[in-house]
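Because discrete structure vocabularies remain unfamiliar, we reproduce here a specimen of the format, pairing a chain with its fold in token form:
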Amino acid sequence: MPITRRFMLTALAAMPVAACDRPLSLGDEGMSGGLGEATHHNLLVQTGQLQYVMNLGERFAAEVPTTVNFAFDSAVLDAEAQAILRRQAAWMRQFPELSFRVFGHADLVGSSAYNRQLGLRRARAVVAYLRRQGVGRARLEAVVSLGDTQPLIFTRSRERQNRRAVTEVSGFMQRHPTVMDGQYAAIVHREFVATAAE
């Protein structure tokens, strides 16, 4: 299919759905399992927004580091983590209509309850730092990923790679003017022009 035709079909399919009080989110259907989540997910698929969010999520992961690591039993951001978060914030400012989730993790040392709280503190530390870098609070959500339940390296000893916070694109902000005013195609067009210039 020619690029211009594919672009037009994507732009037409990507018209916004009715407003809601929360961001249109990638993966919501697995987060809460609440009433209406399947319908919400289906609307994202049918309007083309889900695929576009997934594409931007992949681009975010390819262009900036998505993970910061922490010292043992700490939610303090070191210089390396701060440098990574500044890069994330710069990318986020390019796409003001996107929302993000930050998942906090812990290693396998300590109780599960403590590690859940530590993971949440780490996610909140990342969100606070991104806010100081000019990313709006409504665009960021700190999510604990059950602390020690998703280790990268399975070991009962201290492991820095497991002590992390991961930032992901979660969806479009429904209250953002470009989405709410029916200018969703402008977002698609901006992305198309940027990739064509490469």
Summary: Residues 3-197 form a domain with the 60s Ribosomal Protein L30; Chain: A; fold (CATH 3.30.1330.60).
